[in-house]
Design brief:
single chain, alpha/beta
Length: 152
Amino acid sequence: MKKTALFPGTFDPFTIGHQSLVRRGLALVDEIVIAIGVNEKKQTYFSLEKRLDSIRHLYERDARIRVEPYEGLTVDFAVEVGAQSILRGIRTVNDLEYEKSIADVNRKLAGIDTFILFTEPEHTHISSSIVRELLKYGKDISLFVPKETKLY
């Protein structure tokens, strides 16, 4: 049976740290579905279409990775796409307790396991929201964006 993991997020095209989590996740499962949260109330710097296009471009050469928009509970979408697990990334030990409680909820609601991976050290203190803020004020973000990222 093919093992599929769902990787939920609101990803922006600059996915610093996220790409390494996806690569490491592929060592645990056969396929990853990157789920881009759709929330009409949440303001993002890029439109959903631009985010989806940019992220799909990052992974277009790997048939083991799909990028899909979703609404609602992550665990419900995981069941919908046939995922047996959810892949989560954390930056610090402080994030671990929260993620463990989410993992417990997902296991109780749908019998879905969670893989919790630490972000690699060089990405620990840089989040997409920080990069968005730098971009908003016209700062050079090339140090924080993966080289293969292209914005459409």
